Amino acid sequence: MKKKAKILMFAGALLPLLLFVFPLWKITLEAPQYPTPLGMFIHINDFTDANPHDIKNINLMNHYVGMKYIPEAIPEFKIFPAGILITTIIGLLIAWKANHKWYLYWFILMVILSSAGLYDFYLWEHDYGHDLDPKAIMKFTNPDGSVMGFQPPLFGTKDILNFKAHSYPQLGAYSLGLGMGLSLFGYLLVRKENKKLKTA
User: Fold this and answer.
1) Per-residue b/e over 148-180, b at no fewer than 16 CB within 10 Å?
2) Angstrom distance (rounded) from CA 28 to CA 161
3) Which of 53, 70, 94, 116 could form an SS bridge with 102, CB 3.0 to 4.6 Å?
């Protein structure tokens, strides 16, 4: 059982590396004037178009309401890859040498870092959707007279004017989650076996 748990920990530590291959998140904008929805993929180190020129078209559209351009790079594109590489190395060392309890510690570490990443993503979206240029060509207000924000959802679907914005995780995020789950499963397997041995 300990050997099986070790294999699970090794696999769990390696799976987050797929973030360098597959996108982490996708934001899609649907509207009647766009027969093909606009969209962009968020990778661990880049933004890419869902369809050719989507980010360019999103930037042009957002300019009219005073939203910032989607940048080519953000500081997180240097921080997140380094974080994944470091935690992967730590996970492999734990799988190779450490007691099964460290599988749980690695899982907790990954939960904390992933939660911090999601919170950072939320802050980025909030700033992107609310810090508007007061000289924008078009201005919209809420029923109470306050300036309307254009923040896309962190997760799920949201109506923004005549747009329907979708925000959902992609294969990279699922790989990260699966890796974390395998480390926890490995820990639980060994703990269960140890309990059986104590009661035997």
Assistant:
1) ebbbbbeeeeeebeebebbbebbebbebbeebb
2) 15
3) 94
Give Rg (Cα) of the chain: 21
CA-based nearest residue to 179, from 106, 121, 112:
106
Coil/strand/helix, residue 15: helix
CB neighbour list of residue 20: distance below 8 Å, 6 or more residues apart: 44, 45, 81, 84
What single DSSP character describes residue 39?
E
Query: Each residue of 154-180: pLDDT tens digit?
Result: 999 999 888 999 999 999 999 999 999
Closest CA to 119 of 154, 85, 146, 95: 154
Q: What are phi and psi of 153, to 5 degrees?
A: -70, 150
Residues 38 and 51: beta-carbon distance below 8 Å: yes
